[in-house]
Write a structure and sequence with these properties.
Length: about 300
Amino acid sequence: MSLGGTMDRLQNKLRLVRSQSMGVGVGQGGGQGDNKVVSRTEQRTDRDGRATQIVLLDDRRLELVVQPRLYAGELLDLVASQCGLREKEYFGLAVVDDAGHYTWLQLDRKVLDHDLPRKPQTLTVHFLVKFFIESISHLAENQTVELFYLQARSLIWRGLLEVEADIVFQLASLGLQAGSGDFVDELTTRSLLKKTTLLPTYVLKEQPSHTYCEDQVIEHYKKTSGQTRGQALVNYMTIVESMPTYGVHYFEVYDKRSSPWWLGLSCKGIAQYKHSDRKVPVRVFQWKQLENLYFRDKKFSIEV
């Protein structure tokens, strides 16, 4: 059977819904009206497949039954098609293991051949940016920029990207400019901030009050007037890309003395961090410096 035939069959079994939970995405609301969540009893089942929900970066969910012969690469093609995405090489599919860590699906391997969580019965797969780049200026498609932006917002909202409060306020104003246009009045802005995922909980807890945080965003928001959505997205990402921890995949490792460290993999290379500080690396190995990478089981070594 050709890939096109496989895709056609999958398209016929696909349903698009909006989740009530935030998950990985950065949804704009609670998912009311026609965007209802399909209950477990309504979900389709298949004797030889597994019911699956794919969480998109805008918090929508694709529902389908993954067949035993379906490769992860074919599933990624399907998701890219639904998102209107051409530059799919920057993205991947991941599942969350029992320890709460993301595990990437190998595109040349069948989805159900991976070591997947057995519960709940419906498998949840996350569509995410896997390969970060130094600047979104290298991207060719607006849709790709949009998805990088959505993931950056999600990382900040969930506290996975550490950002100082004053920068969060500035980013929130750019998010409002991108999503709602120019500043109208304070009442409208406060209402928008309560409905969107622009002010993470950890920032709200650190500041004197919610009103204080809203006041700070409003001051920045007034200054963004006149920016188009595209300009606001670019300005948002320019700030995010300047952060030392953005685009770094962290892995906890131990040396020969059983001391814990962090290894950070990024588009720039491999960095070593103290376990108490993931912002400032102890040393950085640029990719061009590395002659060989070796790993076996839980042992990992680098030749420079």
